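Input for the complex:
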Amino acid sequence: MRSDRHQSAPLGLKIAAAAGLLFLHLPILLIFVYAFTMEEKSYQWPPPGLTTQWLAVAWNRPDVWSALGLSVKVAAVSTAIAMVLGTLCAAAVSQTKFFGREVISLLVILPIALPGIITGIALRSAFSLAEIPFSFWTIILGHATFCVVVVYNNAVARFRRTSGSLIEASMDLGADGFQTFRYVILPNIGTALLAGGMLAFALSFDEVIVTTFTAGQQQTLPIWMLEELVRPRQRPVTNVVAMVVVLVTFLPILAAYYLTRDGDQVAGSGK
Amino acid sequence: MTTAVSFEKVSRHFGAVRAVDAVDLDIRPGEFFAMLGPSGSGKTTCLRLIAGFEQPTAGSISIFGERAEGVPPYRRNVNTVFQDYALFPHLNVLDNVAYGLMVKGVGRTERAKQAEDALKLVQLPGYGARRPSQLSGGQRQRVALARALVNKPRVLLLDEPLGALDLKLRENMQEELKLLQRALGITFVFVTHDQGEALSMADRVAVFNDGRIMQIGTPQDIYERPQTRFVADFVGSSNVLSPDFVARYSGKRRWASLRPEKIRLAEKAGQGVAGTVRARSFLGATNRFTVDAEGTRLHVITPAGQPVPEDGADVSLVWLPADLHLMDEPA
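Predicted:
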């Protein structure tokens, strides 16, 4: 959105805005700087010297790889589950009217509104009550609770903008349910699903709180980083990994932003 | 002779609302059939029952002799032109028109050829590459028509097809639809709340009110011989005369309809019905005024050019006895 007014903002406002942005982003830059420091035991400022050796050290640590591998797998599977369930739920809530529709809508969104610690504790006690041992799938279950929400939110917004008569038109022209989904619904909600999926992936990838309660002895990448910070040895390795996490989560979010920005054309507005 | 669409005691209830209530209906093959009624009268639900988007709560529907209950929309040889056209925004015009052929598995070149032919039929040749968003309302409507017709339906359903068009375009499309229907010989069923549209286009009209059909007949029938007060008033805003009033002038105590254009001003005072002119308006080709005759308001329409009485003038009104149409509705 552009304002037609071109007059410049007052100096004070400019300084405040710059200060605010610096406050938000300077710490992230510091993480990048410490990834290259010579000193490994404490975070000393200024860094005594710069080196790229920690990239190689991090590369050769098997615990980094196993944590990264687990995180990627968890994020991928949670996202896949969320995309299927979130889309189905969004379709049901936006396309049909049934008793309890608003309640279901609220219940689906609730996990993201609840503090993670509550979701975590709830899941943990549920698992122990049902005597389910911690596994890859318990982490997935925890992550899916909030991944479904982001996919659902994206999909439901797009469904609402897609005219219901498009689906009827497709059926009327001889397409069965599957064909209608493939040729009409998917092209209309595709970018919203992609954006939701990417957000879900990013959320899952750096999730700590729920994971703490549902992972048992397994280490996802964020959990591994927390543990590393306690040990005063090879600290910059954590920073190297942190840098990678920032990039891995930032790129999909950026992509999601660009993809949905162009999707503003309202489907079914053909009046 | 089989019927194109047949309703037997068809009802569709939504909870306590009887959207369609025990409707009997026979639509003949090749007919241009109009369902006319105010909004909420059940006409659109009837259309959706034929298309298969709704299932009847009770009764049975058959389309060309085949039972239609439980048959999903995609297995009915019936196509719909939607009120909002419902063109697929992610497809261009050609792919929109070819959609029905594509899902049936017709090859790419063949369906492109048939779609182009359908676009020619609706006078939009060469528009295939455009997006629906680049078309005007009238063009979108033609695309929606082509998209339905390319499937060679046995019945074409049109839901308020001209509702979103401006007056001039609407008049052109009325004529075009009529010609198209004659040329193709397909049964057209269209829903409208515009009585002028129904009368000018349809072979037969069904007038709906409160989920029931009030009267079915040719436009002339409906207009000249309305059976109920509702039909008389809804179609052409007739003067609906109370049994008491009618008893005074025709001797029978029945509700009656008297078309405003059938009433004339008496040349001599003392003739016919005396009254006072209350309001006048100039409508271009005609003049319209309201006369208060002993408590009954009569609308009168006279051709422009004839003298129009002043507001408040005392006049006498006359009509031919045959023009006073007695209705079936009990007094």
